[in-house]
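[scheduler] slot 2 assigned
[scheduler] job type: sequence-to-structure, two independent chains
[scheduler] chain ordering preserved from manifest
[runner] begin chain α
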Amino acid sequence: MNTFRLLTYLLAIAFLSSPGVLAQDALAVQSKGLQSRSSEQSGLLVMAHGGSDDWNQAVIDAVEPLRTEAPVAIAFGMANPHTLQEAVDKLEAQDVTRIEVIRLFISGDSFLEATEYAFHIRQEKPPGRFMHEPFPLRLNVPVQLSSRGLMDVTHLGGILADRTQPLMDNPENESVLVIGHGPGSDEENARWIARMDAMADSVRHLAPFHTVEVITLREDWTGKREAAEAAIRDFMEEEQAAGRSVLVVPFRLRGFGPYADVLEGFAYQADHNGFLPDARITDWIRAEFDMLKHLPPRSVTSSCEPIRTSSPSPGHTH
């Protein structure tokens, strides 16, 4: 190496080794990392059963405050892959880097396997018949999926108490009947009853009612529904014979369902709202969204191999 090249080499080493240059390089790397993190954007996809215009609007209203906090899309339908794909496309069009899916169902088991299959979390197509045949979605960003339903959140039982309070007049001579949709499986139905009963404690703490009873109608299952209807009518007859008034509160996301038909011929006071409208549902969606954002995604994009998981069988529930 000649003298000129040697001097050039030594000067270059001295320059690159100087603290100022190293500090600038470190700041550049740190800045790039911060920009990458700040560019991350989670989108919120809310799944809901869907129903009448009033039912759907109640969900839209509950989600509306969250639109100022993140890109939001709603997919109505019982894990309908077509509405799910539309919601995914809307969020991806807003340049989200991942999607957090909040399943706004009473039971966390509802349509879970079909949803996991749609989002590439479960590789095998779930068995059984479906209202909407499931298929894997087209995904360009990873997804995280909520697993809880509203009945897994005991403090939301306060909504049941708030629905009961305007109905009551003389609690000592009144009984409260909380009616839920219910699943087909006896084992799963037992879980429903236990969780409903825990949430109904808020009603028991509200006032000294004679009885606070919870029951599921199991309305989509022939044989199971008939037995449930008989139990409901037996309860109403016993309360009527004892001279007590009955206050009926639906354990549903929105509305009174088919309960008026089941209760035909009996006198009762009823709430017809369900859990919506109530700001606590919005708060729950927000809390679930914030929690999911801090978890690693459960699915990858549709161009990659799906992740295998195991989970309980879903019930056809609301």
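[runner] end chain α
[runner] begin chain β
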Amino acid sequence: MNIYDIAEKCGVSIATVSRVLNNNPNVSAATRERILAVINEANYTPSALARSLGNGAAAPIAATAAPLSAVGVLCTDLTDPRNAAVVAAIEAHLRAKGKSVLLSGCADGDEAKVLQDLADRVEAIVYVDPQARPTANDPIAAVAATTPVLMVDGCVDVPNVSCVRADVRTAVVDLIQQFLRRQRRRILMLVGGRTCACSEMVGGYEDAYATAGLTVDPELVIAMDNNPDEVNTCIKRLLINRVTFDAVLCTDAVLALSAQKALQRTGLSLPIVGLTDALAARCSSPALTCADCAIDALCAAVCDALDRLPTTEDILIPTRLNERDTFRNA
């Protein structure tokens, strides 16, 4: 029996079971007694992490036991400024709620192992900025069968997986429509990753063109590494090959700043927008327009959603445009 089974048998959420396991007073006496009775009857031990705090024995939990309630936070790229800000905010929210946090990175090919290692040690996993996945047949489905997973800026239709994400698709549709109203029809889109968020941004780009009855030019949607030199080479190649474009949209601020610098070297001045914000965007000249993905609201929604697990939710957080010089003067 796992924490899902206990919650279902008692008719409560896993958050309530977790509170009982942590001796949290915010549970009624009757509910506490019902949960503890099921726990003791099932000889349930909360997690490998809880066992590691004692002598390692998998003894039945007693009414006086208070194992550590831990949440695992997994991030594909901790060097990304936005991801780092999201992880820091989530950790602060969780610690304020008395949760212990285990943080892990995830290199290419390590996802299955890292997810399973976390699942053995925590009561839930928060997965930040996951890679795009074409099917649900992946390590997340296997882990979610026993440990609830909450994806941040990702979306997958898997039981016991909830998703909280910035609504970047709608933001891109709105932004492209504004460009089109300004007679900017050949919009270069630089895509710096294979994450779910990047896939949604490209989807919004395609949606906006389709709605306007326009055809997307595949030469204007370019995937690349998040590297200033590669952006510079890309811009130069497009100009040499006489591929015309009249605006630039980038999946993050680093790409947008790199594109801005590359265009300045050629003497071109075009509207540029980054779909994540960064401090450097405000310090650039001209100041870079970026989408505000509402990190505080995103992270607060993550922590609220953790209290409702296990469930399958898709929570969208609205975004807005931080309009600065590179768009305002377009």
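[runner] end chain β
[qc] chain β: The chain is about 45% helix and 15% strand.
[scheduler] slot 2 released
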